[in-house]
Amino acid sequence: MDLARAGATATISLAIEGNLWSAEIDIEQISQALHNILLNARQAMPEGGTIEVRAENVEFDRDSLPLRSGRYVMISVRDYGWGIAVDVLPRIFDPYFTTKQSGSGLGLATVHAIIAKHEGHITVKSPGVGTTFSIYLPACAAAQPVESTIGAQLHTGSGRILVMDDEEALRTLLAQILKLLGYDVECARDGAEAIEIYQRAKATGHAFDTVLVDLTIPGGMGGKEVAARLREVDDSVILIASSGYSRTPVLSEFRSYGFDDFIPKPWTPVQLSEVLRRWARPVGKVDNFHGEVVASDVQNPVC
Questions:
Q1: Nearest of 121, 32, 126, 136 to residue 76 by alpha carbon
Q2: What gap in Å lies between CA 259 and CA 232, rounded to an integer?
Q3: Domain that residue 171 falls in
Q4: Alpha helix (H) residue ranges in the chain
Q5: pTM (global) more than 0.70
């Protein structure tokens, strides 16, 4: 379910610690886990508010929680909603347990299973007002930091970019980074919406310079078909493919599928700016990027 359909407006504040340790994860599964937690946070604040998401390094000198001593990457999601009742708290990860009339009771159970599969742990605290979920993922043995973007130079540009991705949180993050880089951005959830937005923009004289599309959209029109359809509408459009599946032939033979370039997931803001630099109108560079993005209203009609 798309976070933007969950209710009233909300914002997401994202902060990533510099020199964050690396962790070996299944990108699709961890994305699903975070999506489920963010959706819960969204629904807990029907009047709106800020959801705080942080990623930081933690280290345990002795057994703590049901975890071995060692280094972990901790991802926390904090909302300021109505909280979770004391008698409900111990059961929230139980399969099929739900307090929602239309809920399946599988959202948080799925999160728990995914984190356990990664040999990690998840905790939840709800002191009456608000709730904080904390995910602990084992850092890689050498605990090498992920390449930091602190101090790196991001290439800025100008022009209009259309982003198509089925993950609402990723669309929001993409839009914020692209706006910081100087671009005018609109977003689409799937291929059909992307084509509709593109055609409407072109008809009104506000055509997009570049379209960034996710190749795989479960249950919807994916990137390959979108590329073919947009080429029929506008043969001059710049199309960039993105995917977390490294073995897909589209990424190695992207031009054969109608794309001008590609960027694999997961990407960093520096990598994103570099790909766009090859096609956009440059206007300078951004120095000392601090790795923190505050996502604006997630129910913004363009994203």
A1: 136
A2: 13
A3: 154-288
A4: 27-43, 107-117, 168-180, 191-203, 223-233, 249-252, 269-277
A5: no
Over residues 170-177, the mean pLDDT reads 82
Q: Three-class SS string for 33-90?
A: HHHHHHHHHHHCCCCCCEEEEEEEEEEECCCECCECCEEEEEEEEEECCCCCCCCCHH
148 closest CA partner among 298, 21, 300, 272? 21
* pLDDT of residue 148 exceeding 60: no
Instruction: Look up the CATH number of the domain holding residue 279.
Output: 3.40.50.2300
In the chain, the largest separation of any two C-alpha atoms, in whole Å, equals 63
CA distance 247 to 133: 33
The total domain count for the chain is 2
Instruction: Using pLDDT thresholds of 50, 70 and 90, give the confidence band for residue 288.
Output: very low
Hey, what amino acid is at 141? Answer: A
pLDDT in tens, 93-147: 877 666 555 544 567 888 888 898 888 999 999 987 899 999 999 998 654 554 4
- Count of CB atoms situated within 10 Å of the CB of 104: 11
7 and 134 together in one domain: yes
Cis peptide upstream of residue 266 (ω within 30 degrees of 0):
yes
How many contiguous H segments (helices) and E segments (strands) does the chain have?
A: 7, 13
Give the long-range contacts of residues 63-68, CB within 8 A, separation 24 or more. Answer: 65/121, 65/123, 65/136, 66/121, 67/120, 67/121, 67/136
